[in-house]
Amino acid sequence: MGVFTFVCRNSGDEWTGKSLSGDLEASAGSTFDLQRKLVQTALSSDSCGGVQSSFSFVTPTSAVFQVIVGAPAAAAFVGGGAASAPSGGAAPAAEEKKEEKKEEKKEESEDEDMGFSLFD
């Protein structure tokens, strides 16, 4: 698994990205094209497994771009599953709450059956 971090800068109408370690670099007219080129550059160095990337502006004319090559396939499922968790996870949570309420009602009814109250 390889992690490539690039410092990206805009000079005029061209974006350039240079890796922090190594000789990898690319340039393009837009940040979108630069990201695509930097991913291809990282893949040419380490082409094993999936690819994850993250682009973050630091200032309007500079950014940091990170490419992770060889990310485990399970990470993609975790990321994808997290988006659907609220819709799928809400139903079981609601069922648990219903069960808890039923248990609370049972406990209350048991107190009533004893014929006395603790607060009298």
TrEMBL record:
<feature type="region of interest" description="Disordered">
    <location>
        <begin position="80"/>
        <end position="120"/>
    </location>
</feature>
<feature type="compositionally biased region" description="Basic and acidic residues">
    <location>
        <begin position="94"/>
        <end position="108"/>
    </location>
</feature>
<dbReference type="GO" id="GO:0005840">
    <property type="term" value="C:ribosome"/>
</dbReference>
<protein>
    <recommendedName>
        <fullName>60S acidic ribosomal protein P3</fullName>
    </recommendedName>
</protein>
<dbReference type="Pfam" id="PF00428">
    <property type="entry name" value="Ribosomal_60s"/>
</dbReference>
<dbReference type="InterPro" id="IPR044252">
    <property type="entry name" value="RPP3"/>
</dbReference>
<dbReference type="GO" id="GO:0003735">
    <property type="term" value="F:structural constituent of ribosome"/>
</dbReference>
<feature type="compositionally biased region" description="Low complexity">
    <location>
        <begin position="80"/>
        <end position="93"/>
    </location>
</feature>
